[in-house]
Write a structure and sequence with these properties.
single chain; about 230 residues; alpha/beta; Rossmann fold; four-stranded antiparallel sheet; 10 strands; about 25% strand; globular; binds adenosine-5'-triphosphate; binds magnesium ion
């Protein structure tokens, strides 16, 4: 589980300091599906970066299973990201010169998985997202929804415990959005994942088990936040 205590993150912007996170206290249980909503620029992506050990907080602690990511060595963080945390982004972030199959295989390279096993695990992950018949296509030959499926397969292939998704359907039409969220939901359920999903879209957030709202770098339960704006 995650336990964030008094987490702050400051960025320097020219001469100003931006308090992207201004004291976040948050616990996320193993296997929980949490949606994070909130206006643009209020710290949602920054929060995901802390959860994903992509960056360190300015102060406070980010504990994952009792280990504080804020103080872990870079090599340990690298290992954790490679093995335990899958990322899904709004813009898919596939490598354009690699096929779907090869894109998924890349996630296993840092884990030193032998080539033959990489191939079979990537094929299985693509099957899980319903893309077996597109495995030899380049990203440019796939629709947005299909590209996001490849990205989800790439996140799942390492068999992570946590999936962090930042506006995963932000670039997709409504039907494709629903397909992708249903896919994430099915994988969350089947694999017992912890799923943290950032979204502007209330229709998506409502499908999660719990919603929090980020405002001015702070997290509050959705209901309190809504009551506060009324
Ligand atoms: N690397 C950075 N350097 C400087 N400022 C940054 C950096 N990353 C984020 N910020 C600032 O921190 C604040 C929070 O940004 P963040 O990306 O977390 O917001 P967000 O809630 O994800 O917004 P959006 O909904 O638009 O994606 C913003 O003011 C942003 O400009
Ligand atoms: Mg963002």
């Amino acid at each position: 589980m995650y336990k964030l205590t008094a987490v702050t993150k400051d960025y320097r912007k020219g001469r100003a300091i931006v308090h992207a996170l201004a004291g976040v206290d948050l616990a996320i249980a193993d296997g929980e599906w949490l949606a994070v909503q909130g206006p643009t620029g209020h710290g949602k992506t920054t929060l995901l970066q802390m959860l994903g050990a992509l960056d360190r907080p300015t102060s406070g602690s980010v504990e994952l299973d009792g280990h504080d990511l804020a103080t872990m060595r870079e090599s340990q963080l690298c290992g954790l990201r490679a093995a335990s945390i899958g990322f899904v982004f709004q813009t898919f972030n596939l490598i354009p010169t690699l096929t779907a199959q090869e894109n998924v295989e890349t996630a296993l390279v840092p884990l030193h998985v032998p080539a033959a096993t990489r191939k079979s695990r990537a094929a299985a992950a693509l099957a899980d997202v319903g893309l077996t018949d597109r495995s030899r296509h380049l990203p440019g030959e796939l629709s947005g929804g299909e590209q996001q499926r490849v990205a989800i397969a790439r996140a799942l292939v390492k068999e992570p415990t946590v999936i962090l998704a930042d506006e995963p359907t932000g670039n997709l039409d409504e039907d494709t959005r629903d397909e992708i969220i249903s896919l994430l939901e099915a994988q969350w359920r089947e694999r017992g994942l912890t799923l943290v999903l950032v979204t502007h879209d209330s229709a998506i957030a409502r499908r999660a088990q719990r919603i929090v709202v980020m405002r001015d770098g702070r997290v509050s339960p959705a209901r309190t936040a809504l009551a506060g704006t009324r």
